[in-house]
Amino acid sequence: MDLREQLLKLTEIGIALSSERNVNNLLDLILAHARNFTSAEAGTLFTREGDNLRFQVTQNDVLSERLGSGNTGRFLRDKTVPITKTSLSGFTASTGEVLNIPDAYSIPSSSEYHFNDEYDRKNNYRTRSLLVVPMKKPNGEVIGVLQLINARDGKGQIVAFHGDFERLVLSMASQAAVALSNALLTLDLKQAYLDTIMRLAIAAEFRDTDTAVHIRRMSMYSAAIAEAMGYSPDGVEQILYAAPMHDIGKIGVSDRILLKPGKLTDEEFAEMKKHTTIGAAILEGAEAPVLKLSHEIALAHHEKWDGSGYPYGKKAEDIPITARIVAVADVFDALSSVRCYKPAMPFDKAVAMIKEGAGKHFDPACVTAFEKALPKITQIYREYSDETGAMHKLTGAMPVLSRP
């Protein structure tokens, strides 16, 4: 590849990185492009967390073939490395310098940095050449490190990384750092947006702490069901963000009705049902896509597949799919949780009730997705089952799917 081709490739990579906003996808993409650009058979990407580097992505063609692609980082998950000059990645993060090492096992003992062969030993792998490059923001701050392993020549033989790659990969890593910073900023804005929605929704129902916890659980249940139905990551996020507003209309319902510890009279139930149209009125005319989804969910999440729901008695596919998804999540959480008017139903019995409601209360396709998502739903249920712990978590951030 001549210089012109290299510069053109760098430009193409920069465009590809700048257009990706999902952080996990971006991290994979950065490492894949860097490996492809340098013909490296493996590599690792670290991101900076305070005084440590965290392993985020590991790719290894040799181990993928031997162990499967999901196992190349099996000894690195949740592992961090202190940012000191004794390790290769720590040295680069500390100094901002590029390291180009022909043979990891031939680093002089007098060197300030050393190669840790633990990964090689545990995986029966042999690291030879290494190119360790800082990911720098325009102000010079190092926010990550790219570690490329075992460059291969045209015949597939392992060789040292060519010196020309040092500045080229450094340039690419700088582009990657900007793209990562932008993606994280977008993620932080999304988190702040979701946190605001959560707090507004909780404010509408904070008269009942059980119900406030319910908002968080059912939102995550809704996202899990959407994911099982094949929604894109962006679509799943939209459901996660929109679902918390499903009962915002309860702000207009009397405490006397909302907190009644027994069965509602017909008149009281008629008042309670108005929360759907009140919520829709609050959200009417919103321009933001997530609030448009919130509007249709608030209005229709109590409609039933067989047409016996409210407020308008819509049936089957006349009910928006988002509302059909949230209906399953909403009822499941109501069944499996303590409320002021009832004890919690056992988890397995609540699952059985959802299955029985397929084709009557619920869209059968949503129930099928609910069953498919049960492992994730069970995890959410367990994590948020303790009311004290769950209420404490209400003050924290909602989980975001794409955070590294």
Summarize the helices and strands and which ones pair or pack:
Elements: H1 3-18, H2 23-38, E1 40-49, E2 52-60, H3 61-67, E3 80-82, H4 88-95, E4 99-101, H5 118-123, E5 130-136, E6 142-152, E7 158-159, H6 164-205, H7 209-228, H8 233-242, H9 255-258, H10 266-273, H11 275-283, H12 289-300, H13 321-336, H14 347-356, H15 364-372, H16 374-383, H17 387-393
Antiparallel strand pairs: 1-2, 1-6, 2-3, 4-5, 5-6, 6-7
Helix pairs in contact: 1-2, 1-6, 2-6, 6-7, 7-8, 7-13, 7-15, 7-16, 8-12, 11-12, 12-13, 13-14
Outline the structure in words.
By secondary structure, the chain is α+β, with helices and mostly antiparallel strands. The protein has two domains: 3-182, Beta-Lactamase; 206-393, Hypothetical protein af1432. It has 17 helices and seven strands. Strands 1, 2, 3, 4, 5, 6 and 7 form a seven-stranded antiparallel β-sheet that branches. The two termini are 33 Å apart. The model is unreliable at 387-404 (pLDDT under 50).
Brief digest:
The protein has 404 residues and is an alpha+beta fold. The protein is built from 17 helices and seven strands. Strands 1, 2, 3, 4, 5, 6 and 7 form a seven-stranded antiparallel β-sheet that branches.
What gap, in angstroms, lies between the N and C termini? 33 Å
Order of helices and strands: HHEEHEHEHEEEHHHHHHHHHHHH
CATH homologous superfamily heading of the largest domain: Hypothetical protein af1432
List low-pLDDT spans.
Answer: 387-404
Give the overall silhouette: elongated
Count of DSSP helices? 17
Give the beta-strand count.
7
Q: Structural class, from secondary structure content?
A: alpha+beta
β-sheet strand percentage: 5-15%
Main sheet record: 7 strands, antiparallel
Taking all Cα atoms into account, the compactness measure Rg is 26 Å
CATH class of the largest domain: Mainly Alpha
Mean pLDDT across all amino acids? 85
Which architecture of the largest domain per CATH?
Orthogonal Bundle
Enter the CATH topology name of the largest domain. Answer: Hypothetical protein af1432
DSSP helix fraction: 40-55%
Compute the number of structural domains.
Answer: 2
